[in-house]
Amino acid sequence: MTNLPTPILHIFAMFAPLFSKPVFQNALLLFTGHILCKGRRTIADILRCLQLKDVKNFSKFHWVLNGAKWNCLAGAKIVFSQLIKLLPLDDEIIINIDSTLERRKGPQIQGLGCHRDASRSTKSKKVLSIGLNWLVCALSIKFPFAKTKWSLPFLSILMPPKKPLSSCKNAKDLNKKGKYKKMTEWASQVAAVVRSWTGKFRRITIVADSAFACFKLLYACNKYSIGLISRLRLDARLYDFISEDTVQKKGRKRVVGQVLPKLSVLAKKDIKEWEEVTVQWYGGLSKKVFIQSGKCLWYYVGFTPVPIHWVLIKENEEAEAIALFSSDLNHSVVEIIERYVERWPEEVTFEETRRHLGMETQRQWSDEAISRTTPIILSSFSIITLMGIELSRSKNENIPCQQASWYKKEYVTFSDLLAYVREAILRNSLLDNKGEYGKFDIKAIIMQAAAA
């Protein structure tokens, strides 16, 4: 059997310090099988894909997820450090944050709750599903072979519900004593972690939907010099800055200036009073939109006022107005709109991981395996992307697009990149001289990874 391609081994070798040598050998096999496997991503299906269905000590592969000692956060740091290398040193780091529901059932599953199912809900109908709620952080990167930016996950955090389900039989959930954390509190911790990974001087912006537009996350982002772009309520309390000529009367010192009109009032202005700008819209298309903007203080009683740059947007005269804001006052109006539009590819990533990487098909039941498997599957989207880029660079060739008579593609999608990596592995590692599946030469792979 030939060895794995060197570019792929370079990516595998980065994770070697996380594991002991025996565990790394098994983890390497599992991840290779995860790339090659189609359909479900159970351990049994992966071993069948690798022609290891007759292996006797198969429990060692389950041990990689449910018992071996390795740090998932350290792995996330490695993925993040490799992804930011794809960006210029002076380029802004854009991090998309969103939650996704992994539909699972079972009384023994830790962290199970009843959550809103975004993919099945509409504006008029709210659908609840039982599953695990994950906070996913992804890096937004533009590739020359793609039409729009890709959202590459590097960190996933399980957010347990406040109260376990009535059918729950998991001992940790039933005896839980720690304080419940809201989604915005988890996101605030993400801001601290990302800043510690990048250093003090790298410019970072977090982009999230309206569920993250709160003072707690704003304070955390300001503390770590991170910008936050999100949606703003049309009835938000906005105030002017305190001018130097403001006369201070007796009493408590003023923290804000005069109250400003509500955005809901500004949204009713005649469209002729709006400014027209051209921005990059959804689908990579340019679009003319009407805007109003300004800089002010966002303030609510009991909280410290926060300076923001707000933008009110309308697609046309009849369309409903939406408001966005950025806590980084240096962001221009166009940057705020385009950064928020570029958040949508994270939803595409969630769909791709379900369709091509088998998310929600794994069947681990132990607490440790549950907390590790889904983050690995989501991060594998980024790892496979890195492998495809390294392969194309080493071969000095473009990643081919898979074409069909009814589907003409001009740009590479993740399915093309996954097929490109699969072909390279099959050609170099899993095919013997007769063109049949061979056995994995683990020692050769480890030695080649160490040399790389």
What's the helix and strand layout?
Layout: H1 6-13, H2 21-36, H3 43-49, H4 59-66, H5 72-83, E1 93-103, E2 113-116, E3 128-141, E4 150-158, H6 171-174, H7 183-198, E5 204-207, H8 215-223, E6 226-232, E7 238-239, H9 263-266, E8 275-280, E9 286-298, E10 306-314, E11 322-326, H10 333-341, H11 345-356, H12 367-395, H13 414-430, H14 442-451
Parallel strand pairs: 1-5, 5-6
Antiparallel strand pairs: 1-3, 2-3, 3-4, 6-11, 7-9, 8-9, 9-10, 10-11
Description:
The protein is α+β, with helices and mostly antiparallel strands and 452 residues long. Helices cover 36% and strands 19% of the residues. It is built from 14 helices and 11 strands. Strands 1, 2, 3, 4, 5, 6, 7, 8, 9, 10 and 11 form an 11-stranded mixed β-sheet that branches. It is globular. Residues 432-440 have low confidence and may be disordered.
What brief labels describe this structure?
single chain, 452 residues, alpha+beta, 14 helices
- Give the integer mean of the pLDDT values: 89
| Unreliable stretches | 432-440
Helix content: 25-40%
Helix tally equals: 14
* Spatial separation of the terminal alpha carbons: 19 Å
SSE run:
HHHHHEEEEHHEHEEHEEEEHHHHH
Q: Class by helix and strand content?
A: alpha+beta
According to DSSP, the number of beta strands is 11
The major sheet is characterized as:
11 strands, mixed
Q: Which term fits the overall shape?
A: globular
How much of the sequence is in beta strands?
Answer: 15-25%
What Rg, in angstroms, do the CA atoms define? 25 Å
